[in-house]
Structure formats: C-alpha cells, structure tokens
Amino acid sequence: MSFRAAVITFPGSNCDRDMADALEKVSGSAPLRVWHGDAELPERLDFIALPGGFSYGDYLRSGAMAARSPVMRAVIAAAASGVPVLGVCNGFQVLTEAGLLPGALMRNAGIRFVCRDVALVVENSQSLFTAGYEKGQRIALPVAHHDGNYFADDATLDRLEGEGRVAFRYAEALNGSARNIAGVLSESGNVLGMMPHPERAIEAAHGGSDGRALFASAIKSLVKA
Amino acid sequence: MSPPPALKGSKMKVRVSVSLKPGVLDPQGRAIQHSLEGLGFAGVRDVRAGRLIELDVADDVTDAALDDMCKQLLANMVIENYRIEKVAA
Fold first, then answer.
1. Residue B45: inside a domain, yes or no?
2. CA–CA gap between residue B57 and residue B7 (Å, rounded)
3. I need a surface site. Which of A24, A146, A185, B62 has the fewest CB within 10 A?
4. B33 within domain boundaries
C-alpha cells in the first residue's frame, strides 16, 4: 500500500520541499504537491502536511492569510473527517489561525528570531504522530522561528494538559511559550501543530534523526488501520 | 474609466484599531519602551504596540458585516481586541 500524502505550498512557504523529501524518504512514496489556490485536495489522502515558511509574507499575522486561502477550507474538512494533518512552524501558525488548534503563536518573548537545535520532551507518546517515542523521552530538533511564543488562556492550557494534548515541550524556556509548549494536538488527536522541524532531522546528514520517528509513527498507524 | 462597483455611490472610511488584550505580553511594546528610555525619555510606564487598519467601504456595508470582518480576519480573538471607528470619507 502506498502512502498518499499531500504537502501544501503557500506563496512564501520555504520548507515544503524539505517536508516532501522527508515524507518520501520515510514512506517510500513521493507526496502530492498541492498549491494554496486549489479549492480541492486530491482524493483519498492519508496525510496532509502544512510546511514552514513565511506564507503571504506573514502579512497581518503569521499564518493569517494562508488560513483563509481556498485550500484550507478543504484541509479543515479533511481534518474533520479524520485525515492526519501536521503543521510545522508556519504550518502550526496556520493551524491556529484556521481554528484547527487552540491558542495563538505570538512574537518570541525575546524579540529575536531563534534558529538552533533545541531539546524537547515528548509529553504524549500515544498519538498517531508520537507513538514512536517514549513518554518523557528527550529529543533534539531544530527550530527557526520569530513567532513561536505559544499563547492560550489558562483554562485552555489546563484543558490541553488534562487531555494529554501537549505533544512536545521545550526542555528549557526558548521563546516565551506558555508552559514551554512546543507542539499541541487537536481534541481528536489527528491534527498536530509544532514549532520545531522534524523534517529537518530525519537522517545523520542533517545532524540528527530524531524527527524520523514522527513520520514513521504516522505511516505505521495508517498501515495498521 | 469607470470606478469598480464597490466604490460607486457614497462611501465611508472605517478605522479598525487592533490591540493586544490586556495581560498578553507585548514584546514589541517592551522593546519600544526600552528604546524610548535609551533616547532619554523618562516617565514612559508601558508601551503597547497595535495595528491600525483603514477600510474604504460602501455606505451600505452594515455594522454587523464590519464586526464579522474583524472577528474572522482583522483581529485574532485569542490574543487581540479591536475597535471600529467610522470617520467621514
């Protein structure tokens, strides 16, 4: 069975090729490439990825314009029907702006763009994206963002924690994120948004391969299903 | 050359001020405050940076529609408040 993934490209996306490459290397199948202006997604998708970058030049707010682009209506419908959706970096910003994930990503508390490898703690190893990790495992992934400061009100944060929807946490404070949250899951668990870049850490040549298990988990969960 | 349909007839100017909700940390405001201190201006207790969006709209655009524009796009209701002000065009 081949793995049918789609990578969405918005004007200003710049991690779409890395994402497509990672999906192909881990799954063995090249993902379909979808342009933001497409009103429909390819049929029978197993996985949708929203890549990093600066969609629409970060106009208005990071991810705000992309979240209202034609393809996102189809992504929202696909997510509602259970298709796994991964948003990385700008993709995470798009998911919050589209209302698929709670909260918002604000300017880093330290004002500066942060671009380096960071230590993360896996908080939930039960989701389809994180089943390949152990709960409490420390992994290293690169981050590269200006607006990664996760914000949500306390009631929302308590709910996320209580429902096991914090997927990853920064091991140390990085960007002002509430409770050091680096990645969150949707209520139904099939949408994951995260600021760190798993697609930039899938083989030794990248300097680390801790991101590989995320793609492998998602692929495995679909083959089993 | 005829103007696009939306600009026909009378129109109004709408100013939408978008600001961070109280309590939401504003790193940009903080940096501006530090810069003002660096320039020697004393007594600036706090700075909050927002966004001003001006719209030219036909005068039959309803208040409810303006409100929806703010809620659906112009402001992110998780972190921001907005204020709508109509001014003579």
1. no
2. 7
3. B62
4. no
Q: Report the domain count for chain B.
A: 1
Q: Mutating which of B79, B80, B81, B82 best tests the A interface, going by the most A Cβ atoms within 10 A?
A: B79
What's the pLDDT at A223?
Answer: 72
The CATH number that applies at residue B63 is 3.30.1280.10
A203 is catalytic: no
Question: Are B27 and A103 within 8 A, CB to CB?
Answer: no
Domain of residue B73 covers 5-24+50-87
Chain A residue at shortest CA distance from B70: A60
Looking at residue A39, what is its pLDDT?
Answer: 87
CA distance B27 to chain A (A): 5
Q: Is A97 a catalytic residue?
A: no
| Residue B26, min C-alpha distance to chain A (Å) | 8
| Domain annotation covers residue B30 | no
**Does a structural domain hold residue B40?**
no
Q: Which of A60, A76, A184 to mutate to test the interface with B (most CBs of B within 10 A)?
A: A60
Q: What is the pLDDT of residues A158-182, one digit of tens each?
A: 999 999 999 999 999 999 999 999 9
Residues of chain A with pLDDT under 70: 1, 224-225
Domain A5-224 top-level CATH class: alpha beta
Chain segment B36-76, per-residue pLDDT in tens: 999 999 999 999 999 999 999 998 999 999 999 999 999 99
> Domain spans of chain A?
5-224
Q: How far apart are CA B89 and CA B79, in angstroms?
A: 30
Assess whether A146 carries a catalytic annotation. no
